[in-house]
Protein: alpha-glucosidase
Organism: Salinomyces thailandicus
Amino acid sequence: MMLGLNGLSRRWVGLLALYIAILSLLTPAATVKHDNFKTCDQSGFCKRNRAYADTAISNSKWESPYSLDQASLKFDNGILTGVVNKKIINTDESVRLPLTVAFYESGTARVTIDEEKRQKGQIELRHGSKASKQRYNEAEKWAIVGGTTVSKGAATSQDTETGTTKVVYGPGSKFEAVIRHAPFGVDFKRDGETQIKFNDRGLLNVEHWRQKVEKPKEEKREGEEEKKEGDEAVVAESDKSAAEDESTWWEESFGGNTDSKPRGPEAVALDVSFPGYQHVYGVAEHTGPLSLKETRGGEGKHSDPYRLHNSDVFEYEMDSPMTLYGSIPFMQAQKKDSTVGVFWLNAAETWIDITKTSTSANPLSLGIGSATTTQAHWISEAGVLDMFVFLGPKPQDVIGAYTDLTGYTQLPQQFAIAYHQCRWNYVTDEDVRDVDRKFDKHNIPYDVIWLDIEYTDGKKYFTWDPMTFPDPLGMNEQLDEHERKLVAIIDPHIKNEGNYPVNEELKSKDLAVHNKDSNIYEGWCWPGSSTWIDCFNPKARDWWKGLFRYDKFKGTMKNVWIWNDMNEPSVFNGPETTMPKDNIHHGGWEHRDIHNVNGLTLVNATYDALLARDKDEDKHHVRPFILTRSFYSGSQRMGAMWTGDNQADWPRLAESIPMVLSMGISGFPFAGADVGGFFGNPSKELLTRWYQTGAFYPFFRGHAHIDTRRREPYLAGDPYKAIIAQALRLRYSLLPAWYTAFHEASVSGAPILRPNYYMHPGDEKGFGIDDQFYLGSYGLLAKPVTQEGQQGQDIYLADKEKYYDYFDYWTYEGPGTVSVAAPLETIPLLMQGGHIIPRRDRPRRSSGLMRYDPFTLVIVLGNSGDAEGMLYLDDGESFDFQDGAFIHRRFLYTSATSSLVSEDVASTKASGKKAQDYLKQMESVRVEKIIVIGAPAAWKGMSDVEVSEELGGGESAAATRRVPLDWHEKDEGRAAWAVVRDPGVRVGGGWKIAFA
Ligand code: NOJ
């Protein structure tokens, strides 16, 4: 019984680890438990590939062993195919790797490398069950929804002299891919200049299929210690050809868990260089600056690569390349006036090393004329090598092309971009009703109240605790009276208990994830022993759909929406708090293959369930709302994300800004952090500043851990309560601007919060700035206070433009840094000249109650004297906008004619019934005020303006009338301003106001 002691002690260690894990989840400690998560050195494939890189880089004679078989090349209809041969070092053998380079109509190129030997078949697992032998190639099924129309214009030519194949492609044939044959590599050019290079440093590595050779067990010699976990590292250290370090090929242990690796080593890696580019952004989700740091050690640099391995990282730390809950393997590089990008489509664990090299033409040039090249080394554990290339040149070109592939943020319901009140937990339905009443009593707006896991009957999702939530419907009806919503949590782990129909069905229908022995996988999560739905199984997704029907999930009604948490998935007793990599999913894929896309599949299933729930009920079905913790490229199509379990301290507040910005430039702008901080109790000052910051998160939710003190805004006391209420009112009054920004994101992928580099891609000084941002296309520039006791804020203005304080119109002029006073009651917020900002200023209890409220337009005049702004509006809930039921206006102020006009942007389907009905409903909604900031001195003494409005019913004639204008003189540093009182023009109609 060899197993005896070993097995037993391992079990004890396992139990102890579990106990500690649970304890640590309940009692917040100061920092992340590093030991729970691997470093690159503890991750076999990462270590091997770093060693490979070291060998390649340190050896001047290194030549990448990959070459393109020229005879295999075919170019057909925008797609180049061929075979790359990998020569196996020290042998005459080579491995055939099918290559595809696709050129899309959008100007995006895609390089895919597979492995012939792994393209078919299955492998036997130890217990007779089977797993797929193939490299996982279905990430695309989850992540990609468009943008792959092949380019008809792409043209190829061979250059035998240089041994290259060239393909000219993209808009105006400005792009070129130069495919180098030996060693294999690709250079991407724009306008003749190289922007991106693949395999320039020779780090391409496809770990090929090998037969496992059972080595005889080494006899233990007398006096020799038994080999312990960790010893492998020492072995590899001493083995200088560490690229062939075999110690983790077939098995790998970490933290008491052993990963069997039935397919052996199968990593894919590639180096990508951005010549001339100083900054790279992206690869969310991490803490730390927006502009990514170098990762191979040294001062101010990380020593581990950025890791993407979706995990429940408890008490995650600041400024770290450690993995977090979600992964977006999309990177942008920035240099003056040029942005390019790559997207590494791979759902397995991934690490990205970043290094920079500087070259200077002349050592005496003092840096003038020197150029930085940023290099990224992408390493994934499994799957095919699949990389997309975007050649810009503008930030939006790159983000737009990426979101063209992975989809745009769904236009959310309006309530979803208003304020959400959450905590773990509102403890009874009466508690919820009470909080709801108190918001009203204190005149503080909110739209949504949330229920965390304690509402359930013993952590069984789709049930209510009968003692504490005896009347969920009554509760929801009360919320509905003020158009408020409830969001209830539903996690993917299902309590493994008899008499719980959800569990019984999951098991009897065989819809759960399996372990490596082909049995249903059991792990530990909130409910104790649990099983996990396998959303890769279409039958499981179908079944999940049924669970959300109103007659199944009793106690829910139309105003109830869903929070999918713990979907990395979080498994308390699993390796690195997640699922074993050798678990098996539908289709025979190992968990290793799909780990990073796992969270997305759950949200996808929930999204379909919520759609189906309403579709069955009624034709006017509304847009689902889901919040997810785990995500992958494409998750933006289904809802919002938040940054997980942060802490109630000042550095975390500051950190939230680059994190939310990073999501925005990664195609997933509907992002926020827990306002107030999840763990711990914020001081009142911190809470107040957090609300002021949160008012600018696209997803704005207060949330708190179960052990924290209650902190609903109305509890803050004077003066904090009033200041928090002001921040909330600011968010509510700007909802028309937020909603329009979301609309823009939903059709173009544009970020909602825009960092400096995005707005001013020619301004190198601003490329590293990540603590201030612009909201949408409105020129609203915010820099929330994130330090204790801070009374002022320095804001960087990149352009030569006028900026005005949002609240008192104090005038600033760029470029340069300006100081803005920021006492506790103030949010540093400026308005850049040249924009028109739509607002709704009437205080209401919830956004739903603002539906027919009038608008205020704020015209911000800058250097040119002209201004422009958009307004998008629809019913804020249904899909009717797809049938034309929306209002989309452009407001234009022209100084040459001193007039403001409202034009239709697009209403192509406006003749449809839904469109007509909507316009009719909005007929009475007016503009009640126009404020002109920086108003021309010539208006002094003007007492009224001329309004002409198109008459309804298709008549082109305009009715003309005069309305009053109030002039406000310049005062100290403040701008002059004027107010048009009650112009009464329809928000959905055409009109003109002449300031004469
Ligand atoms: C973990 C989530 O990150 C947190 O927000 C939530 O309150 C707890 N799970 C309990 O559900």
About this structure: The chain has four domains: 2-30, 40-212+242-361+369-406, 416-561+572-754, 756-994. The first strand starts at residue 66 and ends at 76. The radius of gyration is 29 Å. The first helix runs from residue 3 to 26.
